[in-house]
Amino acid sequence: MATNHYKRVVLKLSGEALREKGSRDNISPQIVQELAKQIAEVKKLGIELAIVIGGGNIWRGLTASHGGMNRTTADYMGMLATVINGLALMSALEDLGLTVRVQTAIEMNNVAEPFILRRATRHLSVGHIVIFVAGTGNPFFSTDTTAALRANEIGADVILKATKVDGVYDKDPVKFADAVRYEHLTYSEALAKRLQVMDSTAFSLCMDNKMPIIVFDMTKPDNIPLALRGEKVGTLVSEKA
């Protein structure tokens, strides 16, 4: 039987992943429940799991700023959207009997704990799932950057970037049928090829601190546990080939 490849991980989820394709609803309860079941399987492996979730299904600060809204205000609205998503995921996980703590970078004591690094690592060490919401608490930073920052702060072994695409391609696989998926890239190769693994700030944080990134398709069942066992899932981006 395969053994776990990692001990402590950060799972980065996009907000759009919580929305049913073609639906007007921002959050699909069915998708959240299915996602919670996958995460429950991860916990059975004994892995310490932290989650960073985006808010793009509800609000995108950058998009709103392009429409004329003040960027700082728009970004704070986006951070609040991540809190909504985090609470939805927390509820689904708790329904499965898991212990979850939501930590927010913007204080809202009636809703979630404030982000305190030592408290977060303590939660992880005793088997609780920690969901980090409200981004970094600052405008102009994406939730990709939040994932990179929190992963380095808590001493994670890897970032799992869950998307609707099964890895990193040399060009957009939606537009180009001959797009080629990479199984493994070094940071230098990703930069040289100008591949959009994460935004530039997040990617620099990972590269500078040698934090591996696995980009994979979260819509396929069992992909998260497979990745954690070191199976070839999606694209691995790391320091060495």
Entry summary:
The protein has 241 residues and is α/β, with parallel strands linked by helices. 37% of the residues lie in helices and 19% in strands.
Could you characterize the architecture of this molecule?
This protein has helices at residues 29-44, 61-66, 71-95, 117-125, 143-154, 187-192, 200-208, 223-228, and strands spanning 8-13, 48-53, 100-104, 113-114, 129-133, 158-163, 168-169, 181-182, 184-186, 213-217, 235-238. It is of the alpha/beta class and 241 residues long. It has one domain (8-238): 3-Layer(aba) Sandwich (Carbamate kinase). The two termini are 26 Å apart.
Distance separating the two termini: 26 Å
Poorly predicted regions: none
What is the tally of beta strands? 11
Biggest β-sheet: strands ordered side by side in the sheet = 4-3-5-2-1-6-10-11-9
| Mean residue pLDDT | 92
Query: What share of the residues lie within helices?
Result: 25-40%
Q: What is the CATH architecture descriptor?
A: 3-Layer(aba) Sandwich
Strand content: 15-25%
Sequence-ordered SSE layout with sheet pairings:
Blueprint: E1 8-13, H1 29-44, E2 48-53, H2 61-66, H3 71-95, E3 100-104, E4 113-114, H4 117-125, E5 129-133, H5 143-154, E6 158-163, E7 168-169, E8 181-182, E9 184-186, H6 187-192, H7 200-208, E10 213-217, H8 223-228, E11 235-238
Parallel strand pairs: 1-2, 1-6, 2-5, 3-4, 3-5, 6-10, 9-11
Antiparallel strand pairs: 7-8, 10-11
Helix pairs in contact: 1-3, 5-7
